[in-house]
Amino acid sequence: MFIKTYSSAVFGISATTIQVEVNIDVGINFHLVGLPDVAVRESHQRIKAAFKNNKLHFPGKEVTINMSPADIRKEGSVYDLPIAIGILAVTNQVKTNKLQDFLLLGELSLDGTIQKTRGVLAIALQAKTEGFKGLIVPFENATEAAIVSDLEIYGVHNIRDVILILNGKKNALKFETIGMEDIQQGSLAAHPDFSEVKGQLHVKRAFEIAAAGGHNLILIGPPGAGKSMMAKRLSGILPPMSLNEALETTKIHSVAGKNRQTGIVAQRPFRKPHHTISDVGLIGGGAFPQPGEISLAHNGVLFLDELPEYKRHVLEVLRQPLEDREVNISRARFSIDYPANFMLVAAMNPCPCGYHNHPEKACSCHPNAIQRYLQRISGPLLDRIDMHVEVSPVKHQELNLIAPSEKSEQIRERVINARNIQSERYLATPEVHANAQMTRKNVAQFCQLDEAGSQLLQVAMKKLGLSARAYDRILKVARTIADLDYEKNILVKHLSEAIQYRNLDRSS
Known about the structure:
The chain is α/β, with parallel strands linked by helices. About 40% of the residues lie in helices and about 15% in strands. Strands 12-15-18-11-19 form a 5-stranded parallel beta sheet. The protein has a 4-stranded mixed beta sheet with strand order 1-2-4-3. A 4-stranded mixed beta sheet has the order 5-8-9-10, sandwiched between helices.
């Protein structure tokens, strides 16, 4: 007798439907074919024990399992449930009329409990595209799957629940679809507030510009100046995520196994990897490819504290993703693209001891040591960072001020208004959402300067020795400053402020 069930395999952040074909014939063997890995081949023992402990019949015949398409490697234990249900169906222990309508996912414990898995959102989206009626998934993954509308989602605790659902005896485990209001509510969660930061008005201004245009930012200042503290508050002034952004971000986190009880990632990610991270940990990859930190920061912020302490080759792998806003993992047998549209915020000391140009503390570093320290960050990488901001220590008088500072909510309103202007501007180019993402053609179209502005930028280019990439970065930042001022054209004052955010160029 022959029966077919359906499951799915995740490759990158996309899913492919897998047909699990079960055939029973005369004999006593168990055959599992279709390019399974070790975890899949071990399913025989888990299924057999689960059947015995739940008083289900495992056939004492020749059982052949084929997983199609056979040219895709099947990895992990997610196929336990579709294989088990296929065996139950072919032995008439479960009805077969619903099998073609549902994808089945989940690892079986020896007692029949179904364990959570990865990549459920990607699978749910693909299931909807291919016209499946719904999914039967582990209970812990059901909220995540319920993000996708027009699908019946059943969250199950054990194999007995699945049998009851397929036999039409239990619907209580059906989950309701999560709506946009849930995403918006999640995005309003508490963030550290900029009102808690004393002084540093010019740095706050830089963060506002960076958030409004999606610009990369590097902070240079002594220890204790507040670089990390302000970076952690950036997420609180970024605009709320759209439904598409939330879905895309959740999909990446799901594939990486960063499952959330709430199901959907409603807040923009803030990733802060340690400086000992490897290049694979940063950009992704490995024997079983997984998204790296730059993809986990997609639609959010990647914060690299103590930037010169990162290994040079690790930093250099950022150059291509910063330009293309995606990363390609190429191996001999496969190639995977991961999204990587993130804001890079970096922080560093001006020298090894940290007190170069400090107003009160003397620097103990030799000039050559300072130069070597700064050279740990390559010029091409600095070129890709739009804004270089010097952070000075706050004076004691400012720390004692009781007067409240501007709240993040007020800054966020201005940022949202600027982003709305940009959304209207780039309607004809859907791949561009913010000024930092402008192409060379967009820059030529939307960043035109008058004669005074052109002369000012020409002088700056000559004196600072800026590259063509830095030239574009200055124009993009100036465009954002103009948007914050509700100005249609880039004025000299906007351009002057943008040029000021190239501190490292000036120091060189």
